[in-house]
Write a structure and sequence with these properties.
single chain; 303 residues; alpha+beta; Rossmann fold; six-stranded antiparallel beta sheet; kinase
């Protein structure tokens, strides 16, 4: 072994993901690299030349990279280890859209080659720090890469919320909830709720209401130094806080949720410096036929 190590995170239960994981392990091991896998995944992978580790925040400690094979949900799982250790994460998409992934399954051989040769760049994405207060007391802390969403706990009744920006009340909404998102999360839950697409290099915070019954219920884009707050009114049923759709906590009536720029970013390994516009065109199969700007060979994929 050459002292180099990576952590492999896989979407278990999908045959394509297992086959891809086997290829990654085989080739990286042949190159003299140590491949760690989460202990809960080791048995299903059925490989002998891996090093199982507990799924704790330090699972990627002293690794140079986290390789994630799966969709955006698996990438968000990998992000938990990436953020904790400050380790870059490289995603291979096996899902549908896969906005967080850097490569597709058909690029897997190239991905492994680039990892072995250390031919990748690293960029940082801002995260969100989230806290929940009740009667002035801190009762919960969390974080998110994509979004923190406050949602109703029951289908029968709307949530009654007051939203606040930088310590000043903005509006009261009867709604299904509200999404507070990062630029990375602008193409996730916030997008499905009608929020804007924000380019990753733009540092900002988003607040997007979910089915709000109000005249003023537009998506908001504010400074990255702003503090977003959502107060669940005492007379309304409690709600639920979701962070990246993975970590959840119940919100009692009267709870106050504050969202601000995260102190710890998530680092992504990038193989290509393609414009974000091209990524949008490819991921959403946007029609661009007829575009006349630039060279004829520069038409984005998906045209």
């Amino acid at each position: 072994m050459n002292g180099r190590a990576v952590l492999l995170v896989t979407h278990m239960g999908r045959p394509a993901a297992l086959r891809s994981a086997h290829l990654v392990v085989e080739r990286l091991s042949r190159a003299g690299m140590t491949v760690r896998v989460l202990a809960e995944e080791a048995a299903e992978l059925g490989l002998e030349n891996v090093h199982p580790v507990p799924a704790t925040p330090d699972a990627a400690d002293r690794c140079e990279l986290i390789v994630v094979v799966g969709g955006d949900g698996t990438l968000l799982r990998g992000a938990e280890f990436a953020r904790a250790g400050g380790i870059p994460m490289l995603g291979v998409n096996l899902g549908h859209v896969g906005f967080l992934a850097e490569a597709e399954r058909e690029d897997l051989n190239e991905v492994v080659d680039r990892v072995i040769e250390r031919q990748y760049e690293v960029e940082e994405r801002m995260t969100l720090d989230v806290c929940v207060q009740q009667n002035g007391d801190l009762i919960h802390e969390n974080w998110a890469l994509n979004e923190a969403s406050v949602e109703k706990a029951s289908r029968q009744r709307m949530l009654e919320l007051v939203v606040e920006i930088d310590g000043r009340p903005l509006s009261r909404w009867g709604c299904d909830g509200v999404v507070c998102a990062s630029p990375t999360g602008s193409t996730a839950y916030a997008f499905s709720c009608g929020g804007p697409v924000v380019w990753p290099e733009v540092e900002a915070l988003l607040m997007v209401p979910i089915s709000a019954h109000a005249l003023f219920s537009r998506a908001l884009v504010v400074s990255p130094d702003s503090v977003l707050a959502v107060e669940v009114l005492p007379e309304t049923p409690g709600g639920v806080l979701w962070c990246d759709g993975r970590r959840t906590v119940e919100l009692p009536p009267g709870a106050r949720i504050e969202v601000r720029r995260g102190k710890q970013p998530v680092r992504f390994a990038r193989l290509h410096r393609a414009p974000f516009t091209d990524r949008l065109v490819a991921k959403f199969a946007l029609p661009v036929r007829g575009w006349r700007g630039g060279r004829a060979d520069s038409v984005p994929e998906g045209s």
